[in-house]
Amino acid sequence: MADDTSIFIGASRKPDDSYQRAEHLLLQYGNRHGLVTGATGTGKTVSLQILAEGFSNAGVPVFCADIKGDLSGIAMMGTAQDFLVNRAEQVKLDPYDFQEFPVIFWDLFGEQGHPIRATVSEMGPLLLSRLMNLTEAQEGVMNIAFRLADEEGLLLLDMKDLQALLSNIAERADELGSRYGNVTKPSVGAIQRTLLVLEQQGAAHFFGEPALRIADIMRTTRDGRGAISVLAADKLMMNPRLYATFLLWLMSELFEVLPEVGDPDKPKLVFFFDEAHLLFEDAPKVLIDRVEQVVRLIRSKGVGVYFVTQNPLDVPETVLAQLGNRVQHALRAYTPREQKAVKTAAETFRPNPDFDCATAITQLGTGEALVSTLETKGVPSMVQRTLIRPPSSRLGPITPDERRKLIQASPVAGQYDQVVDRESAFEMLEKKAREAQDAEERAQQAGSGGSRWTIPGFGNDDPAPQPGGRRAPAPRPSNRQTVAEAAIKSVVRSVGSSVGRAIVRGILGSLSRGR
Ligand SMILES: Nc1ncnc2c1ncn2[C@@H]1O[C@H](COP(=O)(O)OP(=O)(O)OP(=O)(O)O)[C@@H](O)[C@H]1O
Ligand SMILES: [Mg+2]
């Protein structure tokens, strides 16, 4: 039934409920984005599943989040259950074949899939500030931190890098303030505390290397099917902000990495954003603007973004207006807000004289939806009451055992499983601190009283708390004399400039002295 230019979605029905015709999503408009909405239990996940199946069969890689674990079954072959076979007959899906799909499981926590990571620099100050829900003043400090890291060549990979940098900034608050504008210790302290909370919530797993290579979510199989990346999101949903920020990061990363392709025959990647309301809920205007912009521009990179959410009102109008392919499942209309949602949803469709859209939305059955896709010249088709086809893969979750086997056999097995901790800001700042401390000790041994090597602030500062409960620096090597000698030279050099002095003081206060 499916051909190579479209995906079979289901069958529309006439006013008397009899079969009307097959409904399709045209692959050439797959990058014009989409929306799947509906109340709980109305069939959103199954619609997502059959769309993902369709894209995969057409050779289009898919990325989707699995909020409840019930999408994971897409990796297994479906079975002929009566209600599914029944549905297949209703929509004239003949033959109704079962199929397992090439799935790569991912998990920010590395438990139910391959770990998925980004570096702190890749995430950037805007998204990090959003993730941490920072105030404007704190966000200003975050921006300064990133600029400083750039200027001083400090690599920001993981959370301990960011913590070390922030400690350093707190120590240098006065000096930095005159250079960049307001940097107050309390605001740096507040950011550091938020970082600790984030770490406790498990976000530390997410920041670091090896970071996700975009190519790994754009794979196809040898038989020409698109890989379906399924992100385990059940645990992740307990931190909705991390969930939303991560997906937003991924979207902007795709946008930045992928080349322009104009209007391809089929998308290069399709990205399903489930529970999309989390992205927009009390998001600041700049962020919504950014989402709007990315959604608008990512189309020409061949990426289709499909938002999945309960209520179309969850999606800002500027974004909504760009979602060309729509699957609207049933909505309830008890409360005024619900009635408004029904009205809005109804008004976004190109009307069908056969039925009243708003009434139909409240009467749709499970796995039934109002469907409108883009047809010739990208014009939305007239809305149709459509019975959605049943999936070819398994409906419902896979077992932990099945998951484990699939993870082991995955094409990225072994690539992301071990964290790599290469030298970055934390290690660099720690090393400088150690060198400075050696120099100081050496100076004290050498001089009686008025040593030339006294470093301002050393020995007087309150030891700052250790970021993330870090261990104190490792014991110095036994060839300390020579190391110290070398260090003295470097300290003398660096103390020459006010910046160097500040680093030495900052590092001593924050890294070497906390025990
Ligand atoms: N196209 C379909 N064909 C056959 N059965 C379907 C179809 N769509 C939905 N169903 C049935 O309805 C059930 C609920 O659908 P689904 O899990 O997709 O709802 P949902 O909108 O995602 O719910 P929630 O908001 O709770 O996640 C499915 O488990 C399945 O039994
Ligand atoms: Mg669901």
UniProtKB/TrEMBL annotation:
It comes from Mesorhizobium newzealandense. InterPro entries: HerA_C, P-loop_NTPase, T4SS_component. It comes from the Bacteria. This is Helicase HerA-like C-terminal domain-containing protein. SUPFAM superfamilies: P-loop containing nucleoside triphosphate hydrolases. Residues 390-410, 430-485 are annotated as: Disordered. Residues 13-513 form the Helicase HerA-like C-terminal domain. Signal peptide: none annotated. Transmembrane segments: none annotated.
